[in-house]
Amino acid sequence: MSESHRNGKVIRIEVLRYRPEQDEEPFLQAYEVPFSDDMSVLQGLQYIKDWLDGTLSFRWSCRMAICGSCGMMIDGEPRLACKTFLRDFPAGAVRVEALAHFPVERDLVIRMDDFLAKLESIKPWIIPKEQRSIAQGEYLQTPAQLDVYEQFSSCINCLLCYAACPQYGLNPDFVGPGIMALLHRYNADSRDGAAAERMEIAGSEAGVFNCTAVGYCSEVCPKHVDPANAVNQNKTRAAGDYFLRLARPKGGAK
Amino acid sequence: MKPAMKRSNAPIFWGLFGAGGMLAALFGPVLVFVTGIAVPLGIILPADAMSWSHMHAFAQHWAGKGLLFVVVALFMWHAMHRIYHSLHDLGVHAASATRFACYGLAVLATLLAAGALLAVGF
Ligand code: SF4
Ligand code: FES
Question: What's the fold here for domain B54-122?
Answer without folding.
Answer: 3 helical TM bundles of succinate and fumarate reductases (1.20.1300)
